[in-house]
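Researcher: Let's run the pair from yesterday's discussion. Sequence first, then tokens, for each.
Model: Starting with the first of the pair.
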Amino acid sequence: MTTARRTRFFFFLNPYADLAFTRCPKCEAKTKQRKLPLVIHIEPQTICVLNKTCRFCPACQLVIARQSEIEPMLLAMVDDERPVIEQGEYLAIGTLDRADWRSGQKEQRSPAEVIDRAWGFKDHWNFVVQGGWRPAHDSSPP
């Protein structure tokens, strides 16, 4: 018997070091800051949980995490002698409830148990920033 995976939130890994996304890229509402335990899978077989402050749009249920902040944290958590962790070698798969994260700090959990307790992301979104000034009637990219 297979059970349906529980999901919540959409996720966007912000690759732009100079953009904080204080407004939601989808609905333009102001984003809030929310500290979430992010569950991240690192190739080949590592599961990490980062208690990370992210941007969050309550209207869209969108979590926005900065790539430039996540990668150094992941590198510090990995035991082997990797010089760098790049996008594509890891995937944010969801979040943990705060109570599950706290109890996981007190006792060691297996990766399978962490994944079982995790809320998966509904989808991973990608936004491309098109900058520059142009007339309002011009819809072509710069």
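Model: Moving on to the second of the pair.
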Amino acid sequence: MHCSIHTNIHPMLGFDWHLGTPGYPVPPVPMAHFVAQVLGGIINTDPSKDVLSHNFMTIKRGNDIGMFIGHVAPSILALLLPFGSGSKCEFGAFSVLTNGTPTAIAVGVYVGVNLNCADPIPGASVNGVVAPGTNMANFTLADFGASMLSVAVDIVFAALIDGFLKFAGKCAMSGICKLASRSSVVRGIAFHIATTDILSEGMVGGMFSNAVNYFVGSPVGSSVHENAPGNIPGNMINREIQNMMSNHYNQGTQIN
């Protein structure tokens, strides 16, 4: 079938699940956060500037909106989430390339699907993209299968990265809290805050993840962002998937 090609102004919106709390001493619980941002993001430099659709920049498959996706919820942690946010266009037409990369498409013809950051499993949030337009790309069953394989790869890598960062955040906050005061009462309260993730979640989301995101992609896995090195495992696997699909189309064999 033919699907609308994504551009940098197509809006992504929906709900992500993150740990949230109105404040101490209420422990964090999973909360729905309303999220919204255009696919081009605010500081995203990945959308193609020389391949246009309706005079807007075309989006590549695997594009990550990155930082500054708006998160709205009655939680003090919601203010930190945009600094470690992520939303990826996983579905693409592998036979239609944008600067050598498969073009992102709306898998629902005029409605796209993005994989978003989430807790406790990154990538567990699936949100919609409104994608009106008349420029279309052919999307086959083979493209769908390859895109779903990329989804699985990204979720696995996201879970590994996120688990390591959360563990590191907890260890760091626990150490800081233990050194903060010799008072057992103050230390006990501080340790409780750290172990309930109020600060360690924020530290991970706002600092650790932000640093890692710049090089390897968002909390939903590897990224085609120009700053992401191609030799990290996630990007290497995605490149192999792209090569597999390139060979598939070069052979003239299509699974329609």
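Researcher: Give me one sentence on the second I can quote.
Model: Residues 94 and 234 are 18 Å apart (CA to CA).
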